[in-house]
Amino acid sequence: MRIGIVGRPQVGKTTVFNTLAESNAEIGGYTSRGEINLSTANVPDERLERLAETFESKKMTLATIDYVDVAGVTKSDVEQAELDSGVLAELRTADALAHVVRLFENEAVSHVDGSVDGERDIENVSLEFALADLQIVEGRLDRLRKQYQNQKLPEQQNEIRILETCQQTLENGKPLRVLNLSTNEEKLIRGYGFLTLKPLLLVCNIDETQLDEAEALLEHFSKYEREPQTAVIVLAAQLELELSQLDDADTEIFMAEMGLTESALDRFVQTSYRLLGLITFFTINETDTRAWTLREGQTAVEAAGRIHTDFADAFIRSETINCEDLIACGSYQEARSKGLLRAEGKTYQVQEGDVLLILANPTR
């Protein structure tokens, strides 16, 4: 999973990035230089830790998320309908976008527009991305119409039809996320990496003096969740960054003092998974207990392919059990004796928390 972190300058994007990725990327002036931060972060999962402990694994491999932190979107970008090509290239490869929205006041860090207004910033960045998408749609439509003006090739005509729908949607001020595209339609335009088609997580960034307002702010900004594939969370990025730099014991004390029940990373990951329709499954062998990411509805043979392409090609079946049941049993032998270990075929849809033991024919 790859998430692009975007927003206006001086809103706390890189602070969010550093918290999530346990990184120390430069903040502040960096945002005006057009640089890009890249990092891969482990996804905490206490279930994996308990599985590894139960089976005394030599190694534990967490699932990962790739984060991309890009320069802030400025007003001139919106007016000129252009973003740096390198920034756009990075964002178009992302599975989702996390738009950091500044809600905190800080006299030492002035807002580029002179005042803090979260809704204005959301509209400005949304407009910028819509203009970037519209530029691609119009360019591609122009080329297709010239190339196939006297031909009636079904695939090209379908692409033209879909792009015309995209054009109308963008011109009406709506993101492409609102379109109800079929699987085939989505495949036809997937390669363009449209920014407004990507799932969007609005990250409302507050400071620690606003913690008591967090629920009210979440309720206010949740109106944006009326659009498909859009979610909202509220966090205090600077506070969470400080928390991430403490050891476990101090973190617990600090969180209790601040009235926090979970970390920003946990909320971010959980919301991102829900937004992208992702689940986690596990594998266990003598050397490694590992977490894997899969899309909801994908099958056991697709899960096997995530582990190794040869496993998918030579798939016979998977022995499957929920991780909590396996931990309670303490071993595969005990799980089998209790009838909890199931044999599942190629079409089985993997469920959240499944542990899979893939059986494949190596001679195929």
Question: Your description of this structure?
Answer:
The chain has 2 domains: 2-274, Rossmann fold (3-Layer(aba) Sandwich); 297-360, Ubiquitin-like (UB roll). 42% of the residues lie in helices and 20% in strands. The chain has helices spanning 13-21, 46-54, 75-80, 85-92, 118-147, 154-171, 183-189, 214-221, 237-244, 248-258, 264-276, 300-307, 309-313, 323-329, 332-337; strands at residues 2-6, 37-42, 59-61, 64-69, 96-102, 200-205, 230-235, 278-284, 288-295, 315-322, 342-344, 354-360. The strands form 3 sheets. Strands 2-4-1-5-6-7 form a 6-stranded mixed β-sheet, with helices on both faces. The chain has a 3-stranded mixed β-sheet with strand order 3-9-8, with helices on both faces. α5 (118-147) packs antiparallel against α6 (154-171). The protein is flat. The model has no long low-confidence stretch (mean pLDDT 88).
Please identify the oligomeric state. single chain
For the largest beta-sheet, the strand count, sense and barrel status come to: 6 strands, mixed
Measured by DSSP, the beta-strand proportion falls in 15-25%
**What's the shape?**
flat
Walk across the major sheet and give the strand order.
Answer: 2-4-1-5-6-7
Low-confidence stretches: none
CATH class of the largest domain: Alpha Beta
Round the mean pLDDT to the nearest integer and report it. Answer: 88
Q: What's the helix count?
A: 15
Task: Note the topology.
Elements: E1 2-6, H1 13-21, E2 37-42, H2 46-54, E3 59-61, E4 64-69, H3 75-80, H4 85-92, E5 96-102, H5 118-147, H6 154-171, H7 183-189, E6 200-205, H8 214-221, E7 230-235, H9 237-244, H10 248-258, H11 264-276, E8 278-284, E9 288-295, H12 300-307, H13 309-313, E10 315-322, H14 323-329, H15 332-337, E11 342-344, E12 354-360
Parallel strand pairs: 1-4, 1-5, 3-9, 5-6, 6-7
Antiparallel strand pairs: 2-4, 8-9, 10-11, 10-12
Helix pairs in contact: 1-9, 2-14, 5-6
